[in-house]
Amino acid sequence: MNYIDGTFVHANDGQTLENYNPATGKVVASIPRSQSADVAQAAAAAKKAQPAWNALSLKERAAWLDKIADALQEKHEAIAQAETMDTGKPISLSRRVDASRSVDNFRFFAEFGRLQKPMMFEMDDAVNHVHRNGLGVVGLITPWNLPLYLLSWKVAPALLMGNAIVAKPSELTPLTANILAETLDELQVPKGVFNLVHGLGPEVGQAILEDQRITGISFTGGTATGRIVAATAAPLFKKLSLELGGKNATIVLEDADMDQAVNGAVRAAFTNSGQVCLCGSRILVHASIASTFLAAFVAEVKSMTIGNPVESSSQIGTLISMDHLEKVESYIDLAVEEGGTILTGGTRAMTGAIGPNPDGAYLSPTVISGLSHLSRCATEEIFGPVVTVHTFETLEQATVMANATEYGLAGSIWTADLEKGQALATTIETGIVWINTWLHRDLRTPFGGVKNSGVGREGGQWSLEFFSETTNVCVMNPK
Ligand code: NDP
After folding, report:
1. CA torsion angle for 378, 382, 384, 385 (degrees, to 10)?
2. Which terminal CB of the chain, N or C, has fewer other CB atoms within 10 Å?
3. Would you say 407 and 451 are in contact if contact means Cβ atoms under 8 Å apart?
4. For the chain, domain boundaries
5. Helix (H, G, I), strand (E, B) or coil at 357
6. Which residues line ligand 1 (CB under 6 A)?
7. What is the distance between the alpha carbons of residues 458 and 137, in angstroms, rounded to a whole number?
8. 225 CA: nearest ligand 1 atom
9. How far is CA 21 from CA 77, 144, 314, 340, 391, in A?
10. How far is 411 from 391, CA to CA, in rounded Å?
11. What is the CATH number of domain 2-244+453-475?
């Protein structure tokens, strides 16, 4: 159901969409296929509710975030189960990452909000007081790979800074957004402050972009959609945050700790079946250690358990949908055409199964060598369990290879020489570099990409800045 002005409602015209479990192919829910009229109602409700919400103090809104975190914590297992049913990701991952981080996002921004100090700039004869208000109504549009994790990453700071919200999750993964709406409803968050409108991107998403009452858009999704978002919202002078695609490099230097690097590269490549914007889908390894690294890497990949996502032992579940599976498989076919060698994976088989499961979008983790770092498979975002491996001789070559895509979101460097690693990190065109780790997040740090991976940063202070407007009040000292 949509959640508009504190009420759960169907789409105005009664249209619905079916929501599938990608591990079984079965329908698990029916959601509204909303249109611009539904978005208009949500935006109107949000606009009405926002001034009173904004009038609360930062501390009062932080207290709301704590209440939401507590309530979501109670639903931790329900969130994990729903996320696994919607995405096909292993339940262990849904528990450890999705459900936990959704709670943490609210907890973190509550605490971070309380730490904010008044901003003042003194002059000889006057004092400047910088006040922050919410932008107004913000549109939050999120993808299917980390549904509540990414939605809560936007909802928490947006609420903290005094905004009202119109949110649209991916129609492929609507379940946990509904849990969030139910939670806010149970807590009696003032009606209209959070509105949820389900439906398709070109319908609901587009209507959010176009609605004049919505003054800020925080979008996470693919680069092609990001282009549409920017083209629609920029002429309307909406504040815009774009978190887009990635094609991240995992760079293994010759002095890397081999076990640590192999382990890290496997995690970076195949977490959530490679469907994380931060995944290291290209491995650049120093030629002198390439064969040792590759042997250990492939052995570890082969040992991963591909199984029913609801089972705790599964390390790899399914992709988001059969359509996406076919798209990823087309890249594997392309890799072969481009002269690549598949070292492992590339099949629909589950571990221990006699044949492929025809109903689930299973794809075994796939390692491809022998491709140019400029090939399509090595430069385009595949967003699946597919990694290409390339070798380099010098650090300069590693930099050139790492930078040879349109993307610049994240990456990791594996080396025993931290100084060398840090120097190399500064040569990579990217928003985030991890050294000897991957996806190690401090929520205070800036998160976002360069080049076609996005515009702007979120996280800590950057989120507070995005979700607010400042007014500088300059007060002349009395004579
Ligand atoms: P999409 O770009 O297809 O969709 C993202 C969201 O935008 C969905 O809610 C989608 O709705 C909506 N949308 C689609 N068309 C429009 C439109 N015309 N106007 C407004 N909204 C629209 O991305 P995916 O859902 O396929 O997610 C995968 C992508 O997200 C990958 O490229 C990945 O790299 C990126 N991503 C980036 C992250 C980052 O922080 N940089 C983090 C996570 C993912 P619908 O689903 O109905 O089409």
Report:
1. -10
2. C
3. yes
4. 2-244+453-475, 249-442
5. coil
6. 141-145, 168, 170-172, 200-202, 205-206, 209, 220-222, 225, 228-229, 243-246, 277, 381, 383, 409, 449, 454
7. 18
8. 2
9. 18, 13, 16, 33, 39
10. 16
11. 3.40.605.10
**Catalytic hit among 83, 171, 203, 277:** 277
- Quote the CA–CA distance of 272 and 152 in Å, as a whole number: 19
Torsion sign over Cα 22, 447, 95, 353:
positive
Pair 222, 245: CB distance under 8 Å: yes
Of all protein residues, the one whose alpha carbon is nearest to atom 36 of ligand 1 is 221
Q: Is 182 a catalytic residue?
A: no
Q: Are 137 and 45 in contact (CB under 8 A)?
A: no
Please identify which residue in the block is written with the tokens 């450890």.
96
Contact between 319 and 363 under an 8 Å Cβ cutoff? The reply is: yes
pLDDT mean values, one per 10 residues, the chain (479 residues): 98 98 96 98 98 98 98 98 98 98 98 97 98 97 98 98 98 98 98 98 98 98 97 97 98 98 98 98 98 98 96 96 98 97 95 79 98 98 98 98 98 98 98 98 98 98 98 97
Q: Are 241 and 453 in contact (CB under 8 A)?
A: no
Right CATH for 249-442 from 3.40.50.620, 3.90.1640.10, 1.10.3720.10, 3.40.309.10: 3.40.309.10
Q: Are the C-beta atoms of 413 and 425 separated by less than 8 Å?
A: yes
Rounded to two decimals, the pTM is 0.97
